[in-house]
């Protein structure tokens, strides 16, 4: 679709919001410069990432580029309010901006969040707007109520902005394929950002979500294709999955994947990226990076030549769901 670049490859900026460890401004700029020089034109961010820090950093970089040359995806659903007390300790993000995130999926909250994000980035518009995390993992027993507010409030607001020509596409950003599927059925969406749920490790979304997307013309942005580290780590037994220590069954599966990839001379992360892009429902893949080296590595993996025999071996070993798509068949 027109709101994705030809490369269908982008950079996510959670890491640039000091996720897990701080990054200095020079390294952030160098990371983004390497991505841009390598042809990346899709960038995803959110107020939640560093509580405004990733938005500010990305905006500082993108304001030096012609606005028509890039596509930016942002999110609503969390308002940033001035912090009146000590920084939170139960967060992925370190050395954040002096705000606290507060869930707000209302119509007015989404509109205000949109305007606040424009100010933090210093940009004149966003291309894709996603409703961020209206899922069970974040809201527990309140999720049905929260989801209803998000569809009736935030989704309505973003659809109005799309109809006014202010943005190009509306969607949901979630780690839960069930939430994405329900949102597509209940709202007029163009895309969803699905993180970690359609990967070489996990393809449950292929059974019903992906066919629904193909049927309705909804293109997915697939994030978390390394499952938060497990498919990119040099030390798989001690890597993370879903931002937690990886369980034994996932470690075993990742080691099997790595062994088959090695047999074909292919880095596992390259297979992870290209597998996700192969599905007809995939509009783009976004990966995180925190340095020039990581940006350049991701670009090499995106362009890596992969022999068809690798995919055939993964199928033969039962590592891919029957509904999954592989590059040789796409």
TrEMBL record:
Signal peptide: none
Superkingdom in the source lineage: Bacteria
Single annotated GO MF: oxidoreductase activity
Coiled-coil intervals, chain numbering: none
InterPro entries for the chain: AKR (IPR020471), NAD(P)_OxRdtase_dom_sf (IPR036812), NADP_OxRdtase_dom (IPR023210)
GO cellular component: cytosol
UniProt protein name: Aldo/keto reductase
Originating organism: Candidatus Amphirhobacter heronislandensis
High-level lineage: Bacteria, Pseudomonadati, Pseudomonadota, Gammaproteobacteria, Candidatus Tethybacterales
């Amino acid at each position: 679709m027109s709101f994705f670049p030809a490369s269908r490859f982008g950079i996510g900026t959670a890491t640039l919001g000091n996720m897990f460890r701080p990054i200095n401004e020079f390294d952030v700029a160098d990371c983004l410069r390497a991505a841009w020089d390598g042809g990346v034109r899709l960038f995803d961010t959110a107020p939640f990432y560093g509580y405004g820090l990733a938005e500010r950093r990305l905006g500082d970089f993108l304001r030096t580029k012609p606005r028509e040359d890039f596509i930016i995806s942002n999110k609503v659903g969390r308002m940033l309010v001035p912090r009146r007390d000590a920084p939170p300790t139960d967060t992925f993000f370190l050395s954040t901006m002096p705000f606290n995130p507060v869930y707000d999926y209302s119509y007015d909250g989404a509109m205000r969040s949109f305007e606040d994000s424009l100010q933090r980035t210093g940009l004149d518009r966003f291309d894709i707007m996603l409703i961020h995390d209206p899922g069970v993992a974040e809201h527990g027993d309140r999720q049905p109520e929260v989801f209803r507010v998000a569809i009736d409030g935030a989704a309505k607001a973003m659809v109005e902005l799309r109809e006014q020509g202010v943005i190009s596409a509306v969607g949901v950003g979630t780690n839960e394929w069930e939430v994405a599927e329900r949102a597509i059925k209940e709202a007029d969406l163009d895309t969803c950002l699905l993180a970690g749920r359609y990967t070489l490790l996990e393809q449950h979304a292929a059974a019903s979500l992906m066919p629904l997307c193909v049927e309705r013309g909804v293109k997915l942005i697939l994030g978390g294709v390394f499952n938060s580290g497990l498919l990119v780590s040099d030390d798989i037994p001690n890597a993370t999955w879903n931002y937690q220590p990886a369980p034994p069954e996932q470690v075993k599966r990742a080691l099997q994947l790595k062994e088959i990839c090695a047999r074909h001379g292919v880095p596992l992360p390259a297979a992870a990226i290209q597998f996700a892009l192969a599905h007809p429902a995939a509009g783009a893949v976004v990966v995180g990076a925190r340095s020039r080296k990581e940006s350049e590595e991701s670009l090499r993996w995106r362009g890596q030549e992969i022999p068809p025999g690798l995919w055939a071996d993964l199928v033969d070993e039962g590592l891919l769901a029957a509904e999954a798509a592989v590059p040789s068949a796409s």
